[in-house]
Write a structure and sequence with these properties.
The complex is a heterodimer.
Chain A (H helix, E strand, L loop, with lengths): L1 H21 L5 H12 L32 H4 L7 H9 L1 H4 L12 H14 L2
Helix pairs in contact in A: 2-6, 4-6
Chain B lengths: L1 H13 L1 H13 L2 H7 L10 H26 L5 H27 L10 H7 L8 H22 L6 H24 L13
Helix pairs in contact in B: 2-3, 2-8, 3-5, 4-5, 4-7, 5-8, 7-8
Chain lengths: 124, 195
């Protein structure tokens, strides 16, 4: 019994380790170009435009950029933006934050990882 | 109520091609037809997400119209380029009117443009010194807009609304190509220049 549990735990750890190794690690330089082309019509780093300013967004609580009028859904969201939450949001924003005004989806996981790496770099 | 729905659906089915051309008319200004073709009741909760997405898109069109206006008034644009800028601005006004009409028909309230001062600051107009600077700003805007329309399409409730976005995205893509060529830049090699 004990042996079985230990084996199961080891197997689980191995799976988790592989999953982590396989998670695409984003490239901030590629991310900068993708950001300009895909997010840049609505967002910029330092100005609130159609969407909120993004510098510092990584690690920030959702809906808290100063001076931006968020939707009630985003203002009330209890989310801190990090790799996992941004990845989920960019796949389908309205599925994660009901009532958000952002409908833009970035469907390619590798591109999401690059953009997230860029946002993280610009938020340091 | 149920009868009302099913008879309408029957009508739409009977006139499948007519429903399609109603969408085309929607873009040209007969927004009620578009809202009907989307098959939704004005103001219904199911529309809220669509209204928000279209309003965000409308915000992009307002920004483009004002950016081209600032460019045209700057005195930096020379003749053939100035004409191009005004042509594109006119098309953005067409997008604006189609989006605003559709938003109204879906029961929403169309967003208004921000002030000139807001756009001057958020677009960093102070950094613009030459015709090429204006072209590059416009080029970036058109690329971002084409990609934005493509990226919101899967979030929209109806294919008819997505088709409107596709039509606008195609206009923005054409603008981007012409601006890219006016700047003397090559087009990218790989397929899928947008999205």
């Amino acid at each position: 019994m004990r042996w079985a549990l230990e084996t199961a735990a080891a197997a689980w750890l191995a799976v988790a380790a592989t999953a982590m190794a396989m998670a695409p690690s984003g490239d901030p330089a590629r991310g900068a170009k993708l950001y300009a082309a895909n997010c840049g019509s609505c967002h910029s780093l330092d100005a609130n435009r159609v969407g909120p300013a993004h510098r510092g967004v990584y690690g920030r609580k959702a809906g808290t950029a100063r001076g931006y009028a968020y939707s009630p859904g985003m203002r009330g969201a209890r989310i801190v933006w990090n790799e996992a939450t941004l990845d989920r949001f960019l796949q389908n924003p309205q599925a994660m934050v009901p009532g958000t005004r952002m409908g833009f989806r970035l469907t390619d996981p590798a591109r999401r990882a690059d953009v997230i790496a860029y946002l993280r770099q610009q938020s340091r | 109520m149920i009868e009302h729905y099913s008879s309408r659906r029957g009508l739409l089915r009977a006139t499948g091609t007519a429903a399609l051309s109603a969408v085309a008319i929607g873009i040209l200004g007969d927004a009620p037809a578009l809202a009907r073709a989307a098959g939704k009741e004005p103001g219904g909760a199911a529309n809220a997400g669509d209204i928000d997405i279209l309003n965000v898109a409308l915000g992009l069109e307002h920004e483009a119209i004002e950016a081209y206006q600032i460019g045209a008034e700057s005195g930096l644009l020379q003749k053939p380029v100035l004409d191009l800028a005004l042509l594109f601005q006119g098309q953005h006004k067409g997008h604006r009117d189609a989006l605003a009409g559709t938003i109204g028909q879906l029961g929403g309230k169309a967003v208004q443009p921000k002030s000139r001062a807001d756009y001057m600051a958020s677009l960093n107009i102070a950094a613009i010194k030459t015709q090429a600077d204006i072209l590059r700003l416009a080029q970036a805007h058109e690329l971002g807009a084409a990609n934005a329309y493509i990226g919101v399409m899967p979030s929209l409730g109806g294919k008819e609304l997505a088709q409107v976005c596709a039509k606008i995205a195609a206009d923005e893509a054409a603008h981007w190509s012409l601006l890219t060529s006016a700047l003397g830049e090559a087009l990218p090699q790989p397929a899928f220049m947008f999205g």
